[in-house]
Amino acid sequence: MAVLVLCSGAASAQLIGDSMADSPEDSHSELLENSGNDQLQTIRQRTKPFGHTLFGGGFGNDQTVGLNADYLVSPGDRVSIRIWGATAFDAVQTVDTQGNIFIPDVGPVKLGGVANRSVNAVVKKSISRVYTNDVEVYTNLITAQMVSIYVTGYVKQPGKYSGIPSSSVLNFIDQAGGIDAASGSYRHIEVVRKSKVVANIDLYDFIRLGKIADLIFSEGDAIVVKPLMQTVFVQGNVAKPFRFEHAEEKISGADVISLAGPGPTVTHAALSYIRNGESVFDYVTLDVFSKMEISNGDIVSFRSDLNDRNITVNIEGSFVGASALTVGRKATLRQVLDLIEIDPVLSAYQSIFIKRKSIARRQKTSIDESLKRLESEFLTASSSTDGESSIRVQEAQLISEFVSKVERVQPQGTLVVAAQDGIADIVLENDDTIFIPRRSPSVLVGGEVRLPRAFLWSKGDSAAEYIAQAGGFSNNANRRTVLVVKQDGRVLDAESALVDAGDELLVLPKAPTKNLQLATSIADILYKIAVATSVALSI
Known about the structure:
Outer membrane lipoprotein wza fold like; single chain
């Protein structure tokens, strides 16, 4: 075994770069690198609201008839009555339109408007007027008359829904498909009776504390979900990475911390927001953040910065020892490589490259923006004839399927560091991954060929010869776009690149359309994906 020495190294991973530790503002974060208006809007659109899992049918499908003690008896309710002793009676009575039940030898007993908890006492008192001694009574309100409630406002399916009077607000909203996550409020819900608000509901109380208003609904009541209030978007190292609502124009950082629940190692908060039409980024300690005022639409990312002095670097591939190292924030690649043990017979150490998350995010953003342009350009085009309309429908289906596939692509953020004079000595970022390839005697041929497989490398053989060994191009191959993926992470055009041991040949597909402009756009996106992932996406 050998230590991969490219320069004189430090004695301990924990000491590397300590004398050059960054200030907090030097920390890289997703918000810092994607702080443009479009990127901020994308983050807002993708962040789900706190409480979004509430309405999946768990309340609306609950048909259990539960009558609480405060429920007021109304016409149509059914009461089980058992009397024994001086007289006997056992029956189920329905409360009539005047609010009465009828007991033989006793007459009508008024139960309408009586609380469930008092029904037994009211019945016993009426019977005792006739039978003064030796009589016992047991009553049970067994079913309630259904009521119809209007659910309206910012719900998915406004309408009229049925339930028992003691059903919860959650039951009725769930029947209406739940709150519209994009525009409805989880914190401002009104119960309206005869044009008057009789209750205000904040579902955060239920989600966080298990509290829900104990209401008795009447026929014709309305549940109104009001529009979304002020919001703050939270991500990063938190228990609850969601969009949170607040009623005031601003919310304190301390309240955001309480809602989001940052992890125990969080030290900083990164804020992105728009002020006067410009994107602004702040990076502050958690203590400073707790005293700040956060405005509507602000985005907060909670981060663990290892006391601002250290970062974590991961190691993958052909090496010996730990798969992660903690180093100083100013540590360079060569300094860290001094600490990694390898077998020089097995490791292609000259072809080291880095996987960097900040680059992966930028690659993903570039691909996503290309998809948006593709959809905008072709899905909004008008058709002048029936024939052209039919073609547009086919193209729209192709684009939809293509976009669905591409959205699942995750770039690896390759940073090529191999050069003719050795490995570039760059400063590392937190969560960088150093990849050390394993020596390989083969060339892998993939993508749109008939028999994708690996072949032993033969010096001087061209890309065309390896593709021929793989059965040649498939019918879906774009013969003009063949790429060579080098072990060091470079992606080159096969026409101008030599094929070396350990390389991979990628034959990209052609777009299944005769629309030249559409085919060109799809080919451009496929090329970006191949560079970002070293994969030939099939379509």
